[in-house]
Specification:
By secondary structure, the protein is α/β, with parallel strands linked by helices. It is built from eight helices and 17 strands.
């Protein structure tokens, strides 16, 4: 039986989440224990949970402080938060999960089932928490966590040359000639990366503007990247593309 620890500064929220989880009929034991950073750290050390639901804003700090200060990091974490855009983006960059308050039962069950699958895959990644620590710092370089079936990769954004869609998968082409295939759509990454000098130049292609070498007019027009790869440029994106090039 998997152990699910719930850390939140509101006793009512802890109890409500525990009751909802118990109603799902899954093979888990809920532990609604931990009302602030210090008691949350102690609860993790005491119970060694498989999954932690973790509030972000607490009286003596944040859920990020709990992660950073815990010696044991061998669990899946699902953050619980009000709509805090910066925190949510940092969580997404780190390939971690979150729920918005008030917690919806259907979303809770989906997130919990996803976390249980991750626990069963035995693919633990303390590096995700390291990436999260970097991503919550306003002036640090963003680091993107890419999860495949076999590995967890932590990649700095300036290492990514381009991304290419393959149905519900996305291929990342990196500066060191690596190619990483992840089971998320290009649209999800466009949303994350569009404010970091990435541009979707065509339906299946997202490029790092910093790695554009030139625009080639032949064959209907193509963007040539510094690694020699070519991607088509949609006529609808042409004006925006050249405007972004001017701003480099």
């Amino acid at each position: 039986m998997k152990k699910v620890l719930i850390i939140d500064d509101e006793n009512r929220t802890r109890s409500l989440i525990a009751k909802m989880i118990d109603s799902f009929g899954l093979d888990v034991a809920t532990i609604p224990e931990g009302e602030n950073v210090q008691s949350g750290i102690r609860a993790i050390e005491k119970h060694n949970p498989d999954i932690v639901f973790l509030d972000i804003q607490m009286p003596d700090g944040t859920g990020f402080d709990v992660i950073r200060s815990s010696e044991k990091r061998n669990f899946e974490v699902i953050f619980i938060t009000a709509h805090e855009e910066f925190a949510i983006k940092a969580i997404k960059f780190s390939a971690l999960d979150y729920l918005l308050k008030p917690v919806d039962a259907t979303e809770l069950k989906t997130a919990l089932e996803r976390a249980l699958k991750a626990v069963d895959s035995n693919l633990k990644a303390p590096s995700q928490f390291d990436a999260l620590h970097s991503n919550i710092q306003p002036h640090e370089k963003r680091r993107l966590v890419l999860k495949t079936q076999e590995s967890v990769h932590v990649v700095e954004l300036d290492q990514i040359i381009r991304c290419e869609a393959d149905r519900n998968y996305t291929s990342f082409f990196l500066r060191d000639d690596r190619k990483i295939l992840v089971s998320k759509t290009l649209k999800e990454y466009e949303t994350l990366l569009s404010t970091h000098n990435f541009l979707r130049v065509q339906q299946s292609h997202l490029v790092n503007i910093e790695y554009v070498d030139r625009y080639d007019k032949k064959n209907g027009g193509a963007v040539v990247m510094k690694d020699g790869s070519e991607v088509p440029l949609s006529p609808a994106k042409r004006e925006l593309f050249f405007k972004r090039l001017e701003n480099i």
